[in-house]
Amino acid sequence: MNIVQIGIGPLGRRVVQYITKREGVTIAGAVDVDPELIGKDLGDVCEIGPLGVPISDNLATAIEGQDVSVAVITSLSSVVAVENQIAAAAEAGLNIVSTCEELSFSLNINPDVSQRIDEVCKANKVACVGTGVNPGFLMDYLPSVLTSICQQVEKVEIYRVQDASPRRIPFQQKIGAGLNDEQFQAKVKTGTLRHVGLPESADMIATSLGWKFDKIEDTLEPVIAEERITTGYIPIEPGIARGVKQVFTGFINGVEKMSLHFLAAVGEPESYDKIIISGNPSFESVIPGGINGDVATSAITVNAIRAITRAQPGLRTMLDLPVPGWFADI
Amino acid sequence: MNIVQIGIGPLGRRVVQYITKREGVTIAGAVDVDPELIGKDLGDVCEIGPLGVPISDNLATAIEGQDVSVAVITSLSSVVAVENQIAAAAEAGLNIVSTCEELSFSLNINPDVSQRIDEVCKANKVACVGTGVNPGFLMDYLPSVLTSICQQVEKVEIYRVQDASPRRIPFQQKIGAGLNDEQFQAKVKTGTLRHVGLPESADMIATSLGWKFDKIEDTLEPVIAEERITTGYIPIEPGIARGVKQVFTGFINGVEKMSLHFLAAVGEPESYDKIIISGNPSFESVIPGGINGDVATSAITVNAIRAITRAQPGLRTMLDLPVPGWFADI
Fold first, then answer.
1. What are phi and psi of B211, to 5 degrees?
2. Which CATH architecture describes the domain B141-290?
3. Nearest CB to A144 within list B149, B321, B323
4. Is this complex scored with an ipTM above 0.95?
5. What CATH architecture applies to the domain A2-132+295-315?
């Protein structure tokens, strides 16, 4: 199966690296907007040696004369921003897998653009899905899957807690580690600190469960160091941010029905992904140590290539895709 | 949505109890072969008060004049035995959810009957799925789902370990607790001791991963009490079986690639459901305390009612169904 890779940033490069290691999937074309990349060999840019695939500045050139089934789009987080790329891929007859966070569950939050994407996909008999490890799996799809064994669900609580100490410096910087309150708040204002997709994750679960929140809370605050922390890329003094905590809470009739807790901080004692379902039965599901987002987001994107070709046309979500499990061959 | 319940044994009764507590699903008819039950009110038999639904000895009578969408079949474990019931439901235009263990993944193990079921479903534009907590979820569907975040899977190990001490007496008896070796082996020979579905679970995961085992092992042995155990329905002396352990192992090129461990025993120190995936990333997912099978099998059967009406026609598996998550309303 041939795919075209759209977006050759850090995430796209990892997807390319992963695809070239997999049986049954081949990269037939590549697209990016960066003039520095145009014309270069995709494999060289991805540091895996030449692939014979030049990076093009447009989709038509990239797939010309080739039998391509799927476009993998790893370009932008905003569904509004990525709409044109999706429409172009759909009109070229390509199924679409995208890491666009807002696309993971956009129907209610961005209804107009979602409807247009759904229509252009249906008109061209292709399917489109937004996925990734989060949003797309840990805090939405997996909890929805786990409710399958429940006769009753009263409450869903989800925790993604990551010790950022061993992570890349850009990741530690991204979560605000080492910033004082003023610097942290300034970064909040630019929007670069926010994990994108928490409302989408909550909406996916709520829609799956048939819940409509009448009140929501969506908070973002620094995790403040209480003592000196030296496990990160720089020492962090007491009173300084060592990371970020984002919480989304949904209420129905004054009752808290769902909470999603995203915490990433240097010096956090434990990393884990935990889902707590209260109902019948009540149970929790834990991944001790948590899941590395860099590997997992690229992996689920590659795995979804098979699933999207088996999905019904239109804008789909992880909820209605066949299981996008890992495969040795397509 | 109206459903017809086929099979009013202990499992079917629990499904009926659950459905009557759910919004958006109504039981319109009931079928069983037991002459003692025919003509009785379904609700009375299920001990939830009259439902105005008489138990019939045939499907046509049960659904006559009603707009029924789904047949829930909780009658038999063997796909060969249940084929006629499925065919009759399909020919009546009903989608089918069944707890038939072998139906959870029958394509390779029972190819002929599976193909006939697939054909009769497609001919009548209905979908059919076998589900349950195990097989159907814990040891097959959920592990397959978890591989979605992997770039590489080297090995899958699954443990379902249950302390049977707090369980019903029939369950403790079913797993051989209190039997000496001769009694245990006699019970093995009758086939009543075996958990049905372990090869099906392994086959579901292997098919999802694209693996073909060239050697398999499928063992069943007693778990022997090493000291006197008094937590069960009868005291168990040293040397006597306190439960059963079943292990399915799959190999490729001499390498153990998958193992499924099913252990249920009185006096087991801990209950848990654990999935260990070795690959990139390697991780484990644990449900401490494990999942109560009685509740969960009935619950997932009810939840799959919604999913099966959204599935493509034919014999489906949990792998290609939309997420059969819990729902507040259909």
1. -95, 140
2. 2-Layer Sandwich (3.30)
3. B323
4. yes
5. 3-Layer(aba) Sandwich (3.40)
